[in-house]
Amino acid sequence: MKKALITGITGQDGTYLSELLLRKGYEVHGVNRRQLSANIAQNDTRCIAASSSNIHLHYGDLTDSMNITSIIQKVAPDEIYNLGAMSRVKVSFEMPEHAANADAIGMLRILEAVRLLGLQKKTRIYQASSSELYGKALETPQSETTPFYPRSPYAVAKLYAYWIAVNYREAYGMYACNGILFNHESPLRGEMFVSRKITLGISAIITGQQECLYMGNLNAKRDWGHAKDYVEAMWLILQQPEPEDFVIATGETTSIRDFIKIGFDVLGIKIEFRGEDENEIGYIKACSNPNYQLPIDKAVIKVDPAYYRPTEVDMMQGNSTKARQKLNWTPKYNVRQLAEEMVLADIRFKLNMTDNKKSHFAG
């Protein structure tokens, strides 16, 4: 039975990856920080842990060298998936030192622990790199050979993690790989990420719990895929004969504005945007779904400059030709299927919250 160690196991990717590895017969170990917030992914991970004797959680943090080394020594994993990170780009501008400590030096701590423990011939390491490495992209679409131009403290920290993985691979012969994953979402995505903010906002609007959703740059374009597809790619990357780095992406781009339109459209609601820049507003144009009573011309989307990044990344589009050829990987979800799954899950989430509150007050 192979052993896998996952940092960030209680996040979106960690949850889906845990499920995948358990299905493949792995013994799964996860690094679990003490400072937990109540989110869906963490609850799902706990449910998985409770239902399987092959998953084990360890208290730990990527900012603690001795702790990480101790866990790796205890588990002696065949595979390590470093998914843990301070992953909110906008917040990284406010906490740049923490981003560097967790996202950059965190990977170094893992690599050094594996090396010093003499596990470099046994343990394969996956580093969760990010499309944010490209930032102010010098070419479109972005592939493994596209120059990096990070535009946030988060991206700069991830750049260090990327290159330190390459360096240890070349210097010590370690099996260390980078998966440069473009935006991947799901109903388990954290509420601070723009995709989930949108689907939660849509669900709150159509259930009458919110009047309007306030957004930042509606023109930003992203290459969105489903996290289920992307964790499969992570696993495939570590199964190759030789360690290599791969871009994982759908190759399709969608603007924030269009993602909002799609999210409403899957419910039978048409959105029309009028105005420009900070004065752009999204209105209800039509509603063919009898379940939702939304007045035509109601303003439901507005722009708030407070949500702008200090340095914006305007366009992200990945070229995953190498992954499709070498890994035989292809995404199963398109952006409409992704948006529909997220919106419907968040509608159920909102309605359940309402029912629980009613039950609480009734009790």
UniProtKB/TrEMBL annotation:
Give the first-level EC class, as a single word: lyase
Record pathway: Nucleotide-sugar biosynthesis; GDP-L-fucose biosynthesis via de novo pathway; GDP-L-fucose from GDP-alpha-D-mannose: step 1/2
The name on file for this protein is GDP-mannose 4,6-dehydratase
Sequence ranges assigned to domain NAD(P)-binding in this UniProt record: 5-342
Q: Which family does it belong to?
A: Belongs to the NAD(P)-dependent epimerase/dehydratase family. GDP-mannose 4,6-dehydratase subfamily.
Cite the GO molecular-function annotations of the record.
GDP-mannose 4,6-dehydratase activity
Biological process (GO) annotations held by this record are:
'de novo' GDP-L-fucose biosynthetic process
Looking up InterPro entries in the UniProt record yields: GDP_Man_deHydtase (IPR006368), NAD(P)-bd_dom (IPR016040), NAD(P)-bd_dom_sf (IPR036291)
The UniProt record lists the EC number as: 4.2.1.47
Query: Record keywords: Lyase included?
Result: yes
Write out the entry's keywords from A to Z. Lyase
Q: Name one Pfam family in it.
A: GDP_Man_Dehyd
Q: Which NCBIfam families is this protein grouped with? A: gmd
| Keyword hit for Lyase | yes
Q: Which cofactor does it need?
A: NADP(+)
**Where on the tree of life does the source sit, at the highest rank?**
Eukaryota
